[in-house]
């Protein structure tokens, strides 16, 4: 079993730098055990990145749901994830997780800024990060399992993890760009 994304894909603002985007919306993922994870807006991301030779095997990365890449990017930059200390139903009751009428996609779920008293930062290992990435890829239901395995293998080889370990300042997550 895998968890599921509760929110639609974030709107992205393309930046002048090649292959750099800024997420405009909060991303919410629910694991099978009910744990909710937040990837806040204003995350600087490169979406999926892997060598062109691997792209020949896996296909054009731009056609895939990029939500797993955003969660993975945050965890790689910070070695942490943001857990929500409320349930999905509690967020809905508080109006923080709500439906929104999108002009093309119809009704989608969006997550407003969750007050920081409902958030908790949790350290994650590289292994956990990469496994959660694969789980999220499978949860999108638009990437074949063999491709998810290829992506998982690709991030396993990512040595960039070594150079990052940034603290997450919950007081600034909805105000500052996370890069």
Condensed summary:
The chain is an alpha+beta fold and 179 residues long. The protein has 5 helices and 10 strands. A 5-stranded antiparallel sheet has the order 1-4-5-7-10, covered by helices on one side.
Molecular structure report:
The chain is α+β, with helices and mostly antiparallel strands and 179 residues long. The protein starts with a strand and ends in a 23-residue tail after the last helix. It has helices at 52-58, 67-78, 88-93, 126-139, 145-156, and strands at residues 4-5, 12-14, 21-23, 27-30, 36-39, 44-45, 80-84, 97-102, 106-111, 119-123. The strands form three sheets. Strands 1-4-5-7-10 form a five-stranded antiparallel beta sheet, with helices on one face. The chain has a three-stranded antiparallel beta sheet with strand order 2-3-6, with helices on one face. The chain has a two-stranded antiparallel ribbon with strand order 8-9. It is built from five helices and ten strands.
What structural class do you assign from the helix and strand content?
alpha+beta
Residue-averaged pLDDT: 85
Strand order of the largest sheet: 1-4-5-7-10
Globally, the shape reads globular
Q: Distance between the terminal alpha carbons, to the nearest Å?
A: 32 Å
The main β sheet shows up as: 5 strands, antiparallel
**How many helical elements?**
5
How many strand segments? 10
- What is the rounded Rg? 16 Å
Q: What is the helical fraction, as a range of percent?
A: 25-40%
**How much of the residues is beta strand, in percent?**
15-25%
Low-confidence stretches: none
Order of helices and strands: EEEEEEHHEHEEEHH
């Amino acid at each position: 079993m895998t968890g599921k994304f509760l929110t639609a894909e974030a709107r992205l603002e393309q930046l002048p730098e090649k292959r750099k985007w800024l997420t405009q919306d909060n991303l919410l993922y629910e694991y099978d055990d009910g744990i909710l994870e937040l990837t806040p807006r204003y995350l600087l991301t490169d979406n999926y990145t892997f060598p062109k030779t691997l792209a020949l095997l896996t296909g054009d990365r731009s056609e895939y749901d990029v939500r797993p890449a955003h969660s993975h990017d945050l965890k790689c930059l910070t070695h942490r994830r943001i857990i929500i200390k409320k349930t999905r139903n509690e967020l809905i009751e508080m109006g923080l997780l709500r439906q929104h009428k999108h002009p093309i996609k119809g009704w989608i779920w969006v997550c407003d800024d969750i007050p920081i008293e409902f958030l908790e930062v949790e350290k994650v290992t590289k292994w956990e990060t990469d496994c959660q990435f694969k789980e999220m890829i499978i949860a999108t239901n638009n990437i074949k399992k063999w491709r998810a395995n290829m992506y998982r293998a690709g991030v396993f080889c990512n040595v960039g993890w070594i150079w990052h370990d940034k603290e997450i300042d919950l007081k600034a997550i909805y105000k500052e760009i996370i890069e």
